[in-house]
Design brief:
Largest sheet of chain A: 9 strands, mixed
Strand order of the largest sheet of chain B: 2-1-5-4-3-6-7
Largest sheet of chain B: 7 strands, antiparallel
CATH topology of the largest domain in chain A: Rossmann fold
Shape of chain A: globular
Number of strands of chain A: 35
Radius of gyration of chain A: 26 Å
Shape of chain B: globular
CATH class of the largest domain in chain A: Alpha Beta
Number of domains of chain B: 2
Oligomer: heterodimer
Number of domains of chain A: 6
Number of helices of chain B: 11
Distance between the termini of chain B: 55 Å
Structural class of chain A: alpha+beta
Distance between the termini of chain A: 58 Å
Helix content of chain A: 25-40%
Number of helices of chain A: 17
Helix content of chain B: 25-40%
């Protein structure tokens, strides 16, 4: 172990497992890509590590979609819920919503069916006082019955447990004493926050994921051990921080959006290194376009997310806005004569028409192939020998060009224009609509298709430039390597500010900080620094939406009520333009994040070491843009040296992505090997 | 002629402007009915006709049809005075011209480009309290609009850009919650400003002519889509009728009858056989009735966009003096119940023509319940909420359990929020077994809410329906369970004489109210239900062997 200096980031995606290797001793880094082995993820994982000496690996950081997939495909464990008498249907009743505004054909099947939701006599009031004591005998009897029925995991959620967790704690102790495994989740442990549906849902989903995620991690640890790899394994959470395997086993719900979160963390670091504090990331995948905002170097964090209708997870997670427009999205003309993109997707199977695998409907990828943006002779990913341009053309002619009375090229360009316009809408939503000026932001596309849309999105939204990372296909794996360790805590207070007991608040913050510090200790990771971030959700009495107020907290003294009031007023003014002097502010929730900073990678290590523009030249290709065919030079992106400059139209190719430099744009290689796309000054 | 690609781009941009106006008000609103229940709407309307050009997707569905009438009312007003100016903003809540009820305050603003009127922007939001006899303005005993709240005709809130603060003074003096009204009003003004700003940018980018061209083309496209939808249905006459329990005055059912005709690409909705205007607040204005038809059609034909073109091939016939043609000063506060019934008869009539496109009726009542009183320290409290029920069975499956009303996208406040804010304790918050209508696909389940009072005394108000006439199934499906409201007092259980309407019933500490909401109607004959589905319902307790709906 003493010589171990390798840190490996592993992002297991649907198609590929991406790896990023960093030798902390030499500063050298390199990347790897192996096919994912669905259902046996650990195999692909180990295949990616096969070339290494096991003893060299110090840390493996893993972004996983095992939890996400189990939720989306309903393949979790057999879980049960124990709850307050009169409330077993909270999980199924949701917040009385429906899947779509228009059309009343909704359905919802909860992950724990009604007969496995059992009620126990107990009741706590909103003020924390006990209305009905916990019936311990019936609790134990129900748990024994559930066990006999083959239930693997238990969730416990009592009404108002956020205000007084005594009954839940007692229930937890009784249940853990009789339950044969660790799969007992208590709501006040996982989310001591007001709103019973969101808390119940998060608790239940944690229990539902526990058997699946724990089994996966157990097997992974075993396989690593068998392979002689004794380095430490860390797991990426949806909040962009990492946690230990033990924590991931206990809180699998916090991995629900692990993969995309790591990508955004990497984007923030790459952009900051390159001198951009404000970034919009855009991940163009096969079926979707995911957008995230980084303002002043900070990623936007959302309090909760729905993975599907009614599947609500309330834990802090990197805010990612998704629209259904990706490479596989199908283009069609509706009955009103309007060109539409998606939401239907050709997926990986049969895939776009140009894959020649039975897909007959035209997709975004088909349009790119027809227009010469993608190299049909050397498709990325390496699974196919060549793409079928004629099939792409036939599909576009039949489904788009003919109904709209356009040429095939014009139809393909129209498909891209409508898709770009939808992607631009998603970027506007997270930037302009949140009060940011797009001219202050750089676009960072990643994923296989990002580089093809960057130029159009720049123009459409008016962003400053686009920053294409050196290895856009492995951004999430890179994010794993640099992610900090982070533990989030929440506690509902629900008190008027004027009545807030600041000494008690101080003690609560200290308690969270100590618990977080203990988790950092237990993980046994070396940190370059530690941080405690404290925030309050505040609102005016009578409002329902709160604003997040940062608190400048010091361990030495309790927070000051006046300072809190001022911080709230400042924040409120920033969000809504003015304050409401006559109405009393309310403190709803306390948030504490305990962060252990991990060493940051110097991205200069990734920069091209040699090469020249001429060496990088790979001939020319006919590319259709702005209504005409152009002869565009093609370059090997990896060989382009620092400061190389290429005028559009041009194509930059690399193993896992293609960058199209539109006319009127210039591509420049910065000192980290990133490509900066920007408009040529008129 | 605009090319189809630019049109697709402009459509997205215009929808985004309306959506952003919605989002801006939801965030800023004080009043939970807007902030949580999204009882608001924004859009762009035709300069000359006031017809809907684009409307936000997140707002209350019923406003999608109604707002055109609000804008038209302002157009009429401005034509009379003849002095429309850039920077004017009109404010009003007159339901007879503008649709819906007094609680909905509309702000309408002309948008000028190159010194000419280009289009209108409008914002509507449900304010917390607009005066009248009952806090929150759901007054089943109202006989004239004066008992429901203040009535403001279209007046200039801004005249050529100058705020007339005396107008605000008059409006706020007539609300029990002036602070909340002030906050919502400002949210609406800001939403209109935002819309104008975004529209400026769009017109700068694409040119006024392109955008105006897009308005015309999008309308034509909506009409084309709707005609194509209607043409697919078999020609013929189809009828349906249903009843409202009563008007809150006497326990006499009110008929809502529809004779629906499909002839090629045209659809006629004739409500002539419906009841005449009633004494209580179940009347609705003609504009509200047309808006309700729009909502029903959009639930069936999901692909049609939210603009006036949709109604081009549709004719709505309403008799003068009808319940659906309320004139001043008839009370209209309970409009939600009447439009829900209108939507139900459209579903039932269409089920004959297009069984593959419809669903059983949803629970069909908003159950506006308020528990109001004073705490020991003298502070006033009003717990006011709408409650959910089952959706109808449909070709793809059983109805959704505990959904929101078809006219709304509102979510319900959590038990824990209500208990933290008001002196109440929920004893039950559960699905109601056996409430879903029987059918091949059964109706979704309604809910049971049982609420105990923790304070010494409170008054209970309820405005609901479907206590006498259950939500119908379609295509042979059975009805959902009736709405049932019970007050559990020390002296025994009390049910309101008018079913689901109650005014100021006195409740003491420890006493409870119990609301059991209807399930949805079934879809298809119950005899065709799969035995495995019946067994699953019994195993999960969705139905019991003794069940009243026989699902």
């Amino acid at each position: 172990m003493s010589g171990a200096s390798l840190v490996v980031g592993v992002d297991v995606g649907g198609t590929f497992t991406d790896l990023f290797f960093l030798d902390e001793a030499s500063g050298r880094c390199w990347i790897g890509k192996v096919p994912s082995t669905r259902g046996r993820e650990a195999e692909g994982f180990l295949a990616g590590l096969a070339d290494l000496a096991p003893g060299d690996i110090r840390t493996i950081v893993h972004g996983t979609t095992v939890g996400t997939n189990a939720l989306l495909e309903r393949r979790g464990g057999k879980a049960a819920l124990l709850t307050t008498e009169g409330f077993r249907d909270v999980l199924e009743m949701r917040r009385r919503d429906r899947p779509r505004t228009w059309g009343l054909w909704g359905q919802f099947t909860p992950v724990v069916p009604r007969d496995r939701r059992r009620e126990v006599a107990e009741r706590i009031r909103a003020d924390g006082s006990i209305d009905t004591p916990l019936d311990e005998d019936s609790l134990v009897a129900e748990a024994r019955a559930l066990l006999a029925e083959g239930v693997e995991a238990l969730a416990v959620c009592f009404i108002n447990a956020y205000a007084n967790p005594a009954h839940e704690r007692r229930a937890g102790a009784l249940l853990r004493a009789l339950w044969p495994n660790d799969y007992v989740t208590i709501s006040s442990d996982i989310l001591p926050e007001i709103r019973e549906f969101e808390r119940t849902s998060t608790t239940v989903l944690n229990a539902y994921l526990q058997p699946v995620v724990a089994r996966y991690l157990d097997r992974l640890e075993q396989d690593l051990a068998t392979a002689g790899i004794t380095g430490q394994l860390l797991i990426v959470q949806s909040n962009g921080g990492v946690m230990s395997v033990a924590d991931a086993r206990a809180r699998p719900v916090r991995t629900a959006l692990s993969g995309p979160a790591a990508g955004v963390i990497a984007a923030a670091h790459i952009a900051a290194s390159a001198g951009f504090a404000n970034v919009v990331t855009g991940d163009v995948g096969g079926t979707s376009f995911d957008v995230s905002l980084i303002a002043n170097g900070e990623t936007a964090i959302a309090a909760q997310s729905s993975l599907d209708f009614g599947l609500v997870v309330r834990t802090p997670m990197i805010e990612i806005t998704t629209i259904g427009a990706g490479g596989g999205s199908i283009a069609w003309v509706d009955r009103g004569g309007l060109l539409q993109i998606g939401p239907e997707s050709a997926g990986a199977i049969p895939g776009p028409a140009c894959y020649g695998a039975g897909g007959e409907r035209p997709t975004l990828t088909d349009a790119q192939v027809l227009l010469g943006r993608i190299n049909a002779e050397r498709p990325i990913g390496g699974k196919l020998a060549a793409l079928d341009v004629a099939a792409a053309r036939a599909a576009i002619v039949r489904d788009v060009a003919t109904p709209l009375g356009l040429t095939a090229e014009a139809a393909a360009e129209a498909i891209l224009r409508v898709a770009n316009s939808r992607m631009a809408g998603a970027i506007r939503l997270v930037s302009i609509e949140r009060g940011h000026d797009p001219r202050d932001f750089a676009l960072m596309p990643f994923g296989g298709g990002g580089g093809l849309h960057a130029g159009a999105l720049l123009r459409e939204v008016g962003l400053r430039c686009a920053l294409l990372p050196r290895f856009p296909g492995v951004t999430s794996a890179l994010g794993c390597v640099i992610a900090d360790m982070r533990h989030d805590f929440v506690q509902t207070l629900n008190r008027p500010l004027a009545a807030l007991d600041t000494a008690a608040l101080h003690r609560e913050i200290q308690r969270c900080a100590a618990e977080g510090a203990a988790l950092l200790e237990r993980a046994g990771v070396a940190f370059t620094g530690r941080e405690i971030a404290v925030g309050l959700d505040m609102l005016y009495q009578g409002q329902t939406h709160s604003v997040a107020v940062k608190l400048d907290w010091q361990d030495a003294r309790p927070p000051d009520r006046g300072a809190i009031a001022e911080a709230f007023a400042t924040r409120y003014r920033a969000v809504y333009g003015g304050v409401l002097a006559d109405i009393a502010p309310l403190v709803m929730n306390l948030h504490v994040a305990v962060i252990g900073r991990r060493p940051k990678l110097d991205l200069a290590a990734l920069a091209p070491q040699s090469g020249s523009l001429e060496e990088a030249r790979r001939g020319t290709r006919a590319v259709f843009a702005d209504g005409a065919w152009h002869t565009a030079p093609v370059f090997d992106r990896a060989t382009l040296p620092i400061d190389a400059c290429v005028m559009g139209p041009a194509v930059l190719e690399q193993a896992d992505t293609t960058i199209f430099v539109d006319r009127g744009l210039r591509a420049r290689v910065d000192r980290f090997g990133n490509v900066i796309l920007e408009g040529i000054e008129p | 002629m605009l090319d189809p690609v630019t049109l697709a781009v402009l459509q997205g941009r215009l929808e985004q402007i309306a959506d952003e106006m919605d989002a801006s008000l939801f965030r800023a609103a004080f009043n939970p009915t807007i902030a949580e229940a999204r009882d608001a709407s924004h859009g762009l309307y035709d300069a000359a006709s006031g017809e809907t050009l684009v409307q936000g997707k997140a707002g209350l569905p019923i406003f999608v049809g109604a707002m055109a009438y609000a804008v038209r009312a302002v157009i009429g007003h401005a034509a009379k005075t003849g002095d429309l100016a850039e920077g004017d903003v009109f404010l009003f809540n007159d339901p007879y011209d503008g649709g819906t009820h007094l609680s909905d305050f509309k702000l309408v603003r002309p948008y000028f480009r190159d010194d000419a009127l280009f289009c209108w922007l409008a914002s509507v939001g449900h304010w917390h309290d607009v005066g009248g006899n009952v806090p929150g303005n759901y007054n089943p005993s109202a006989r004239e609009c004066f008992q429901e709240g203040m009535l403001i005709p279209p007046v200039r809130l801004y005249a050529a850009g100058v705020l007339r603060s005396d107008i605000i003074d008059i409006v706020l003096a007539n609300s029990r919650l002036p602070g909340s009204a002030y906050g919502d009003l400002h949210g609406q003004i800001n939403a209109l400003d935002l819309g104008a700003k975004r529209l400026d940018a769009l017109l700068d980018e694409h040119g006024a002519a392109s955008v105006a061209g897009a308005f015309v083309a999008l309308r034509a496209r909506a009409a084309r889509l709707m005609r194509a939808n209607i043409a697919e249905l078999p020609d013929g006459h189809y009828s349906a009728e249903d009843f409202l329990d009563n008007d809150g005055a006497s326990d006499t059912p009110l008929r809502i009858a529809l004779d629906l005709t499909i002839a090629g690409e045209r659809l006629v909705l004739d409500f002539s056989r419906s009841a005449p205007a009633c004494l209580g607040p179940l009347n609705i204005a003609r504009s509200t009735a047309i808006a309700a038809c729009y909502v029903a059609l959009k639930h069936v034909f999901r692909d049609v966009p939210a603009n006036a073109g949709v109604l081009e091939p549709v004719e709505v016939i309403i008799a003068e003096g009808s319940l659906l043609d309320a004139r001043w000063p008839k009370p209209v506060g309970g409009y939600t119940e009447t439009i829900l019934r209108l939507i139900d008869v459209v579903f039932v009539a269409l089920a004959e023509a297009a069984p593959e496109r419809v669903n059983g009726c949803a629970y069909g009542t908003i159950n506006a319940l308020s528990i109001a009183g004073h705490r020991a320290d003298g502070r006033r409290f009003v717990m006011f909420s709408f409650f959910g029920g089952g959706h109808g069975g449909h070709p793809e499956g059983d109805g959704l359990n505990h959904g929101n009303a078809p006219i709304s996208t509102a979510t319900i406040p959590p038990v824990e929020i209500l208990e933290a804010a008001y002196p109440v304790l929920f004893r039950q918050w559960a699905l109601r077994p056996d409430s879903g209508g029987a059918g091949r696909q059964r109706g979704g389940l309604g809910a049971i809410y049982e609420i105990e009072l923790l304070e010494s005394h409170a008054d209970v108000f309820l405005f609901g329906e479907r206590a006498r006439f259950a939500p119908p199934g379609v295509c042979g499906g059975g009805p959902g369970a009736l709405n049932r409201f019970t007050v559990l007092t020390r002296a025994g259980d009390v049910t309101p004489p008018l079913g689901a309407k109650l005014v100021g019933f006195s409740l003491a500490r420890g006493e409870r109210v119990r609301l059991e909401t209807p399930g949805g109607g079934g879809y298809g004959p119950a005899a065709e239900r799969a035995p495995s589905a019946i067994a699953a319902d019994l195993a999960l307790g969705y139905s019991t062997l003794a069940g009243e709906c026989g699902a």
